[in-house]
Amino acid sequence: MVLIKEYVEEYQVGQLFSVAEASKNETGGGEGIQVLKNEPYEKDEERGQYTHKVYHLASKVPKYLQMLAPGGSLVFHEEAWNAYPYCRTIVTVHKLDEATWKTVDVVPIDIADNSAVDSSGPISTQPEAWLQGLGRTASIDEFRRSVYEIHNTGRSRASWDYKTDEDPTMFQSVKTARGPLGPDWQNELVTKTDCPKMCAYKLVTVQFKWWGMQTKMENFIHKQETRIFTNFHRQLFCWIDKWVELTMADIRQMEAETQKELEELRNKGDIRGTSAAAE
Fold it and tell me: Could you report the per-residue pLDDT of 36-45, keeping only the tens digit for each?
């Protein structure tokens, strides 16, 4: 669960803007993100945006995985069906059929609050929709056992992830006057009825069926997902002055430009961005 101090309507623009910006920050030196498709889709009564991205991450995974993985296998394919406020994502490693993980994002329009996942959040109130989105059958109790609340404030991140200009406790928006976030900002949302607030939920399941490595790799992936979500939402908050006045038309144009820019970035310069090679 990510508690975000933004309106639900704003979050769609902010999320897509931040995805594009973060993608550029993660691309260079032959590695990073490649966008193969970004197009509207319709399925039954569902409409949204479909994306197919390729993540080239050979040097960014732990050394032990670099040594064990077959040559050319550390390329991850991500397909996403973003029917905002719901989004389903499937990540696969084509040369490792046993490796796949799925996520379902929910930004519930009717739950613009700071409710806890275990009490009134959508995992508890809409379990069937979540399980259907993951394409599997399981008890909702299975998912309640691993609930993580991501904190956007403080220096809880590793030193190599921390950036002063991406710290919500030090940032104040010029255009919206939001921030900096104090140590008790989450509790303050309960009493401030005029303050924008919402919860974004992400459910992640991982399957990595390598004998002797399954538990280690599945735990590693969950850890990295939490790390990525934390960094991303801190960036989203601190970049608000860059995106708060944009429209969805602006975002689509930006995405088309970013797709071309990523091709150029990936083929020049040095490898950059988030790495887990030391883990």
Answer: 999 999 988 8
Write the CA distances from 107 to 19, 110, 112, 261, integer angstroms.
16, 9, 8, 29
Domain ranges of the chain: 2-264
**CA-CA distance, 168 to 5, in Å (whole number)?**
10
Radius of gyration of the chain (CA): 19
Q: Distance between CA atoms of 238 and 178, rounded to whole angstroms?
A: 10
Which one has a higher pLDDT value, 264 or 100?
A: 264
Instruction: Check: CB of residue 104 under 8 Å from CB of residue 130.
Output: yes
Asked if residue 14 lies in contact with residue 252, where contact means CB atoms within 8 angstroms, the answer is no
185/182 Cα distance (integer angstroms): 5
* pLDDT over 60 at 140, yes or no: no
10 Å Cβ neighbour count for 122?
Answer: 22
pTM of the predicted protein model: 0.85
pLDDT-derived band at 85 (thresholds 50, 70, 90) equals: confident
> What does the alpha-carbon distance between residue 69 and residue 167 come to, in Å, rounded to a whole number?
36
C-alpha closest to that of 239 among 176, 150, 151, 194: 176
Q: State yes or no: cis peptide before 180, omega within 30 of 0.
A: yes
pLDDT digits (tens, 9 = 90+) for 238-255: 999 999 999 999 999 999
The long-range contacts involving 110-114, CB below 8 angstroms and separated by at least 24 positions, are: 111/198, 111/199, 112/7, 112/8, 112/197, 112/198, 112/199, 113/197, 113/198, 113/199, 114/3, 114/186, 114/189, 114/190, 114/197, 114/199
The letter for the amino acid at 189 is L
Whether CATH 1.10.10.10 fits 2-264: no
Look up residue 196 and give its amino acid: P
